Amino acid sequence: MARWRRGERSKPGTKPLRRPAETSVKRLTLSPPEGVPLHLDVAGLAARFGAQFVDFVITTVAMIAIILALLFANLVGGAAFMALATLLALIFGTPYYVVSELLMNGRTPGKKMLGLRVVSKDGSGLSTHQIVVRNLTKEVEVFLPVAFLLGGGEGSLWFDGFMLVWLLVVVAVPIRSKANQRIGDLIADTAVVNEPRPLLLPDVAEAVGRTARERFVFSTAQLELYGAYELQVLERLLRGGEEGRDGRERQKGLVRIGERIRAKIGYEETPPPAEEEAFLKSFYVAQRAFLEQKKLMGDARADKFHREAEPEPEPR
Amino acid sequence: MSAPIRSTRFRDEREADWKRLSAIVEAAEKRGLSRLTFDDARDLVLLYRQATNSLSVAREISLDLAVVRYLESLCARAYLVVYAPRESLTGLVSRFFARSAPQAVRRSLPPIAAAFVLTAFGAVAAYVLTSDDSSWFYAFVPGDLASGRGPGASAEALRRVIYGEDVQPLGELGAFATYLFSHNTKVALFAFALGIVFCIPSVILLLYNGAMLGAFVAIHVDKQLGLDFMGWLTIHGVTELSAIIIASAGGLSLGYAMLFPGLRSRAAALRHAGRDAVKLAVVAAFMLVVAGALEGIGRQLVTDFWARLAIGWGAGLCWLAWFALAGRGEGTASAAEAEPV
Questions:
Q1: Which of B70, B77, B89 sits opposite A200 (nearest CB)?
Q2: Which residues are in coiled coils (chain B) (predicted)?
Q3: Which of A112, A92, A114, A90 is nearest to A101 (CA)?
Q4: Does the beta carbon of A213 lie under 8 angstroms from any beta carbon of chain B?
Q5: Are residues A70 and A190 in the same domain?
Q6: B225: helix, coil or strand?
Q7: Which of the two ends of chain A, N or C, has the fewest CB atoms closer than 10 A to its terminal CB?
Q8: Same domain, yes or no, for B75 and B99?
Q9: Which residue among A82, A196, A214 sits closest to B170, beta carbon to beta carbon?
């Protein structure tokens, strides 16, 4: 709403307003062999930290459970028990991450829980080499600093200072990186992304009745004014209320928007509030059909400022 | 204008296929690719290609944000399933040991040689210094590692450690356990991982590790126990020192790629060097576990000098044979680039 209004307020002749960025999420573009680039959301640092934490908890709990089971079963003596415990600690380190990412296609149980996933940045499938690399470096990048923080240093100033610097480096690299890659990711050329969740929303254009479309008719001049961006804002607005919650408020909002649009395009008739949604929807359909037609002919209009971006067209 | 607009028709025509792909992908994610039904498995790739096709068309013709976004995440999801790693664990492991690991070691001969020379240099230097002035020993060996052994220790005490007369309180397996987290594993790990900082930490660690070895040898030679110490050390030391050298060689090649990336960018050079370096690290980890078993079990059970020597160098020969002979004659150069591990 706010964005819509801000766009509205700009006077013709002023410099085109820069639209606020859609989201602040970092995006990653993969080029699969099919040649159609895919855009994925890069996983946030907090989510990755959470996944790592969950994995820590899982491995620790599993380790303790096995050790307790061994203790209760009383199968092994003291010395062998120690050996088994260390072996377990080894197995639930790097090998756990490597094997789970291999078998679960780039996910550890923690990542799965938080909806994260490792992908290869070059667009081919995730290779074993990449998985091994990113988890081997985890040993020095994650486990070592954590052990250092939990254990509280070894007493020697030289070593502690070095570990602190290393800790800073380890934290700074993913923050600075374009795709939140940690050092292991950089070496392996991988990135962690949010699991894409396909959700097909109904087509707004579909829901418009034929009668409504015949009732509200728009001329070409009226459809020339807006671009794809405004169209999609309108789409979001029309979709936003479909849950039917807070019907009154929505109705009022729609009326306000309808008024603005009618003022801008110079539409004479004012439909009753009950018909406002039908009006907006048929405007949406007409506008979309118009813009898609234009786009097909090579005249893609990103937003309503499209005219100012190029030299003034000849008056028709 | 009564017909639905073009992008709506586009969507109506293809929606059923998209839904089907979505269902197949869902099933593959949940139960695994191998449990798909025949029809689903056959159609998965076809439907995926169609969906990417739809996506690229939709980006061009459709202004319906919902469709473009849906297709985008559907294609991404299907892409992840279609291009999933599909190798069995056993196949991976056997190929690693049969071919790719020894090939990587052979390719990395120069850094391994460099690491060996550095260790040897450190050892010789420390040996010379310590035999000259035994207080140098304390400069090279941290207190907890020396465990009572030092220039001041009597020959009797040193002999006891070597021939295991004061048996470890934890027993053989306990010794193995404590070993795994012991000093040398740490050295190997650091030498590999920190090599990336322009080789410097790896070089320092190699020199230092060699120096420690040299200092130990010096105090034992001083007490006329040189040969006995060699026997004590060889049984696991051959394997263990080789592991450290191999791990550091991995670190060195990473650092070298950072220092001299050549025509590549630093990141690309690092990635390229990483292919072999990682294999070296895995080999080193495997060797360290074997060394742990040798140290924990072998060293306490086998106290005869010649048996120790035989086991130690025998293991060394086995490693050498593995590195030198395994995986030859299978198009080494071309296969190296294509192999994932």
A1: B70
A2: none
A3: A112
A4: yes
A5: yes
A6: coil
A7: C
A8: no
A9: A82
Each residue's pLDDT tens digit, A303-315: 777 655 455 455 5
Nearest CA of chain A to the CA of B100: how many Å?
11
The partner residue sitting opposite A203, judged by closest CB among B11, B84, B172, is B11
Count of positions (residues) in chain A: 316
CA-to-CA dists, residue B38 to A30, A104, B34, B35, B163, angstroms:
29, 21, 10, 9, 65
Looking at the structure, tell me whether residues B140 and B75 fall in a common domain.
no
Report the chain A residue with the minimal C-alpha distance to residue B71: A198
Provide the token pair at A102: 């291999």
CA distance A209 to chain B (A): 10
**Domain match, A176 and A233 both:** no
Token pair of A106 as six digits: 């780039």
**CA triple A215-A220-A224, angle to 5 deg:** 120
Same-domain status, A151 and A62: yes
Angle subtended by helix axes B200-222 and B183-193, to nearest 10: 150
Within this chain, do residues A252 and A145 fall inside the same structural domain, yes or no? no
Q: Please give the residue of chain A at the shortest CA–CA distance from B56.
A: A36
User: By residue range, what is the domain housing residue A149?
Assistant: 27-194
CB contact under 8 A, A213 and B2: yes
Query: Which residue of chain A has the CA closest to B10?
Result: A203
Assess whether B126 and B75 both reside in one domain. Answer: no
Q: So what's the ipTM on this one?
A: 0.78
- Put simply, the answer to whether A106 touches B11 (Cβ < 8 Å) is no
On whether both B250 and B317 belong to a single domain, the answer is: yes
Write out the E strands in chain A: 27-30, 38-41, 116-120, 190-194
Distance between CA B136 and CA B151 in Å, rounded? 9
Nearest to B219 by CA among B117, B311, B295, B146: B146
CA distance A111 to A266: 53
Count of domains forming chain A: 2
- Its pTM stands at 0.75
pLDDT tens digits for B260-272?
888 888 878 888 8
